[in-house]
Design a protein that fits this description.
160 residues; alpha+beta; binds tetrahydrodeoxyuridine
Length: 160
């Protein structure tokens, strides 16, 4: 028997410690929570992705009475980015969530399905997507979604 350990590395910043460019992206994600359609969960998520030409595209969660038919903020932003700017890779994405009248205290982690989609985009463009996960008590900065997704399934997995 062998045992393996996979370490998840990220940094925690105070919002004010971030660079101006990072703060702008976080602000855009916070703003995007206002376009959320979340009558079922009342959990409003916003995402802002900065592309390689520095365009910023945003998205928010869009819900449906048939719950799985809705989509998370991250995938709304990323699929829109890829559909409208297919030649640009995504450099980084900020995520924020607003519920019960305020932004969350702890950073919002992307769900498993969003992590898989971010991984697919990293593979497609051969470029890591830096993530800024906003919480009032700190912003988690992750250099690649791979840090959040151990034992990744990619297109390569099927060619082995
Ligand atoms: N949601 C996101 O938009 N992003 C996440 O990372 C987690 C969850 C949305 C989906 C649903 O509309 C609501 O939050 C509650 O799960």
């Amino acid at each position: 028997m062998k045992e393996e350990e996979i370490i998840c590395k990220f940094r925690i910043y105070d919002y004010h410690e971030l660079t101006e460019a990072d703060r702008l992206l976080v602000d855009k994600a916070k703003e995007a929570t206002q376009t959320s359609y979340a009558p079922f969960s009342n959990f409003c998520v916003g995402a802002a992705a900065r592309l390689s030409d520095n365009t910023i595209v945003t998205g928010s969660n869009q819900e449906n009475a048939a719950y799985p038919s809705g989509l998370c903020a991250e995938r709304t932003a990323l699929f829109y980015a890829n559909a409208s700017h297919p030649d640009q890779y995504v450099k980084e994405m900020a995520v924020a969530a607003y519920a019960h009248g305020d932004f969350l205290t702890s950073p919002i982690p992307p769900c498993g399905a969003c992590r898989q989609v971010i991984l697919g985009i990293e593979e497609r463009y051969n470029h890591p997507v830096r993530l800024l996960l906003y919480g009032k008590n700190g912003v988690y900065v992750v250099d690649s979604v791979k840090a959040l997704l151990p034992l990744q399934f990619t297109g390569e997995t099927m060619n082995e």
